Amino acid sequence: MSLQRPGGRDVPSVKGRPPEAQEIARVSCVRHFYPDRTQVYICGLDFVLYAGERVVLLGPNGAGKTTLLLHLMGFLRPAEGLVRVFGLEPYRDFERLRRRLGVVFQRVEEQIIGPTVRDDIAFGLLGLGWRRDRAAARVEEIAARLRIEGLLGKIPHYLSYGEQKKVALAGALAGDPELLILDEPFEGLDPRSRGEMARLLLDLNREKGTALLFSTHDPGLVPGLAERVYVMGQGRILASGRPDQVFWDERLLREAGLEPPPLVEVFRPLLDAGLPVGRPLSAGDAVQRLLRAFWAARVGRSGAVAVEPDEE
Ligand SMILES: Nc1ncnc2c1ncn2[C@@H]1O[C@H](COP(=O)(O)OP(=O)(O)O)[C@@H](O)[C@H]1O
Ligand SMILES: [Mg+2]
User: Fold this and answer.
1) Is 110 in the pocket of ligand 1 (CB under 6 A)?
2) What is the C-alpha separation between 212 and 204, in angstroms, rounded?
3) Which of 65, 184, 199, 305 has the fewest CB atoms inside 10 Å of its own CB, making it the most exposed?
4) What is the set of domains in the chain, with CATH numbers?
């Protein structure tokens, strides 16, 4: 699959996706006016999401990621353009949509409203008409899954930021959504919490086929999470492609207003110098590639296969 640019084919083709893959969301040239008359116009490529997919929306601060996601979630009304989720118009069909959609806001404190964590996670379920005992059982189940059982009796306001994110995620997952939309879910988390959160979301996607849509401004997060990436910048959806394509496309990243990942900045000069190190996507991958290149160079020089590394 080559990188898709505006003006190209409409339907992004991803290797391995069955041709009948179901489109579950689409955004096409949406214009939004905030109350202070700030205008956000998101055009370029159409944004399309298929059932069960993991998609990242990548762009710098101010690119319009949150605006686009709030339209998909049904919290904003488009002044023009098309927004569809499960065939519904999110702003008009908010009540029907929220049964199938889970959301985690960029500012999680805005969505945590219950007096205790337990109440907060149950809140959405009760709003969907679940009986109290069934909702209570589901809260315990989801809290165990996210390993936040110990927080259930706490007042959300006093939780750490990472804990608040988990509570918001628990609330979003409680209703077993088909699509989970997460706005900058890793922002402000320490590396361990980030890893935990990423593993949990990937497991969820694998086990239940929940479609995941994340936003981030960090290209480094993309390869571990996404099957497909949309790049936003300059008020446009600039491109869509595989994570490895986007990760290594410094020109595209700079066009969007992003810096290439540190790994690319280190490895690009090595590649340019002719070292056969390939294009790693993670630190572990980079180490393996460097070691292979190193041993190949040693073998080449000595003309013999070195089996054991020397003690230095
Ligand atoms: N509530 C708001 N009122 C006025 N302008 C806003 C509001 N929210 C966002 N904007 C503006 O809309 C543009 C896109 O913002 P946003 O969608 O939050 O981008 P991102 O999430 O990519 O950082 C920015 O210029 C931002 O200043
Ligand atoms: Mg944002």
Assistant:
1) no
2) 9
3) 305
4) 23-100+177-260 (3.40.50.300), 266-302 (no CATH)
pLDDT in tens, the chain (312 residues): 678 888 765 555 555 555 567 999 999 999 999 999 999 999 999 999 999 999 999 999 999 999 999 999 999 999 999 999 999 999 999 999 999 999 999 998 888 888 999 999 999 999 999 999 999 999 999 999 999 999 999 999 999 998 999 999 999 999 999 999 999 999 988 888 888 899 999 999 999 999 999 999 999 999 989 999 999 998 899 999 999 999 999 999 999 999 999 999 999 999 999 999 999 999 999 999 999 988 988 877 766 554 555 444
CA 62–ligand 1 middle distance (angstroms)? 6
Tokens of 92: 């008009």
Residue 5 buriedness (CB in 10 A; 0-12 / 13-18 / 19+): middle
Alpha carbon of 68 to ligand 1 centroid (Å): 10
Phi, psi of 172 (to 5 degrees): -70, -30
Nearest to residue 281, comparing CAs of 240, 220, 225, 218?
220
Indicate which ligand has the atom closest to the C-alpha of 107. 2
Contact between 25 and 57 under an 8 Å Cβ cutoff? The reply is: no
